[in-house]
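Following the same procedure, the fold was encoded as tokens, giving this record:
***
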Amino acid sequence: MQKPCPHSSCVLSCLKGFTSGFTFAVNVRFTHALVIALLFRSGSLVDKLKYIVQLSFEHASRLGCFVAGFKAVQCVLARVEGKRRPVHALVAGLLAGFVFFGKKTPITSQMALYLLGRVVAGCVKLALRPLQLPRSVNGLLFLLTSVLCPAFTMLLFRLNPRVLQPSQASSFRLIYLQSDTWKSVLDFVPFGSTIAYYLKS
């Protein structure tokens, strides 16, 4: 008789899933938060370290718990039905997503937007797969995507920047609006404003 789950222990699989998700998220978020804190955040070194640890811990604990919850729900559904089915992944993703990503924070917003982009790209690939399009058409589709996405992002930024994610709007203000003024030659040097900040301190 076929086992409903591919592992020897559902509990250990969930625990390992938590550990893997936690570790992966720390690796991704720590470096990102470190760069953001050093380049864009004001405050003491201790404040910046707290910010880095806080963001890294939130991302890691949410992803770790999501993975464990997802795997747990899949195991329960597989045991109830006697085998795994693709719909179990959907149900498990819905439940775990609601519990662990349902509260809006800067971290969950970034994760949702990242996943939305991956889902849209995956759905387009699935929809186009039966057509067996030549590489030239696939290249054209990529070109359209890479042209339309920034074009509409810039249009939204010009029309109403409040509809963009706050960190994106802030980055755009720095890149596109603050570059209209300058105070010294350091403004034309990569990381010049950071250098100027540390020279004053």
In short: The longest helix spans residues 45-81. The mean pLDDT is 89. DSSP finds seven helices and no strands in the chain.
